[in-house]
Amino acid sequence: MTQTTPDAVAQFEHRRTALESLQHFLHRFPTMVPILVLIVSVIGFGLIANNFLSPFNLSLILQQVAVVGTLAAAQSLVILTAGIDLSVGAVMVLSTVVMGKLAVDMGVPAPLAIIAGFLCGVATGWVNGTLVTRLRLPPFITTLGTWNIFIALVYNLSGRNTIRSQDIDANAPLLKLFGNNFQLGGFVITWGVLLMLAVFAVLYVALNMTAWGKRVYAVGDDAEAAALAGIRVNRILLSVYMVAGLICGLAAWSAIGRVGSVSPTSFAESNLESITAVVIGGISLFGGRGSIMGPLIGAIIVGVFNSGLRLMGVDVLWQLFATGWLIILAVAVDQWIRKISS
Amino acid sequence: MTQIVLEGRGLTKRYGRVTALNGADFDLRAGEILAVIGDNGAGKSTLIKALSGAIQPDEGEMLLDGKPVRFANPLEARQAGIETVYQTLALSPALSISDNMFMGREIRRDDLLGRWFGILDRARMDRIAREKLTELGLMTIQNIGQQVETLSGGQRQGIAVARAAAFGSKVVILDEPTAALGVKESGRVLDLVLDVRSRGLPIVLISHNMPHVFEIADRIHIHRLGRRLAVIDPKAHSMSDAVAYMTGAKLPEGIAA
Predict the structure, then answer these.
(1) Which residues form the ABC transporter domain (chain B) (predicted)?
(2) In which order are the strands placed within the sheet that holds B227-232?
(3) What is the pLDDT of residues A296-339, one digit of tens each?
(4) Chain A residue closest to B86 (CA)?
(5) Per-residue pLDDT tens over the stretch A168-217
């Protein structure tokens, strides 16, 4: 028998440098990176861009990120399992078309049309999840394929026609519910913003306080270990894709409220924008790491940069330039933090 | 004669033209540490996989407490009370110690929140995890919420063994528990294995490390060419004998060539 206590191996002294301490701190709280970036950028733009900090502008930023933010919540779930879902934007547009088509063109009662849109989202998630788990295709390739297929369905169902705003108002105003807003102080909050916040709140509870959430992290961290520990990996993956699909359906309802109409060509960039928000939010593309609140902040950061640069009157290209650097910074920081575990 | 907890009779497993198990016998007695040794390719990992449900033998039967059993997957073996600590440990590095202890069998709250929404009973899980680790002397300064990846190799091994001991009601199988560890940490893990035995759980220990095997095993099962060659008493044989039996350089007394 050795004399030392069994945990003595953890007690060896290693004096950390300031940088190492920071690394360990960020390792424990990966969401601190986007939070710091958000604080610094809000203060920065507040100092240099006129009217940036006005309640009107801050409200506008939130309204503008509501749809992509909601999609980012769906994307986060998939990325936490070390996957990626390139089809989230297409699924959302498909759901808007299903809702609009049924409620406006076919006279289906609006609540039923909306439920049909949700079911459409869940069904597409089932397709993605089944391809990933049963055929064992890489999520990237699977969703690259289904992205194209879902867009084809969008064109087919919509006949490439836009459902006009006044037709929605006349037949199914419920579809625009999330475009409604209310005043809070000087702030104008849309229901779409509240929906986004609610989705993140529910996911926060689900991921941190339920068995399902722990299993999602475990599968993303090391699927083989999770399987050996008795987790049915495929069931978790399938559920993740289906929940992500449902959230895309919710985002679809929010999107109709945001733009007012149903257009097959709208939100074409939202796939990549959702991934951007997730990555800037500090969720590791390698899976199993990061807090669900990160992507919410990530989405807002992108909105803050876009708004601030616009108010400064700089060319739109600099918005893309800034977003690009934010992504690279975020991934570099993630890599650096992850070095601890090795 | 002590009671036999886990028994294999004539286990055979073929992969195409390769016969990995060739009518292998196996028996584990109550409260003992049975080491399984064998040269590479002797079929010991196939044997262990059969016992832990990871593969299904083509022929032969397995008995747990005298009753015939057949495991379609590792989950069924676990439900029957056989816990395996794999060489890879099957831990999720980013999750906490407590989450890892309960991975795949989390405890839900008793109330409506737990039943309807699957909300975890965090306090109870942490308490039980702490108790289990304390029982095995693994818990003094560690924070139960600490991520597993911040632990040393030996501590991770300790968590995996503690998890198996906490949930294994019949048998604990340890696959090369000291292979990745230094001398000091190995010693600690061996002490831990002895602790588990003293709590009445029989242990199957697969190891290449002869000094470790001879230090803690009650009996040694020597596997050769897909079957059990012999079971020897470590007090009656030397390490070099064991290696000679394993490699076929020598035969134990009473075994015909």
Answers:
(1) 6-250
(2) B82-85, B171-175, B203-206, B33-38, B219-224, B227-232
(3) 999 999 999 999 999 999 888 998 999 999 999 988 988 888 77
(4) A228
(5) 999 999 999 999 999 988 899 999 999 999 999 999 999 999 999 999 99
List chain A residues with CB under 8 Å of B158. 6
Q: Give me the sign of the Cα torsion angle B147, B152, B156, B159.
A: negative
HSE at residue A243, side-chain half, CA atoms within 13 A, is 24
3-state secondary structure of B47: helix
CA distance B195 to B154: 16
**Element housing B29 (H / E):** strand B18-29
Type and span of the H or E element at A203:
helix A191-209
Cβ separation of B192 and A6 shorter than 8 Å? yes
Architecture of domain B4-90+170-247: 3-Layer(aba) Sandwich (3.40)
User: What is the distance of C-alpha A89 from the center of its chain?
Assistant: 11
For residue B141, pLDDT beyond 80: no
Helices B153-167 and B122-135: crossing angle, nearest 10°?
110
The whole-angstrom distance between A228's CA and the closest CA on chain B is 6
User: Which sequence spans correspond to the domains of chain B?
Assistant: 4-90+170-247
Q: Å from B50 to nearest chain A CA?
A: 14
Interface of A with B (CB under 8 A): 1-2, 5-7, 9-11, 28, 205, 209-212, 214-215, 217-218, 221-222, 224-226, 228-231, 288-289, 340-341
CA nearest B160: which of B145, B174, B146?
Answer: B174
Length of chain B measured in residues: 257
Closest to A276 (Cα-Cα) out of A331, A316, A315 = A331
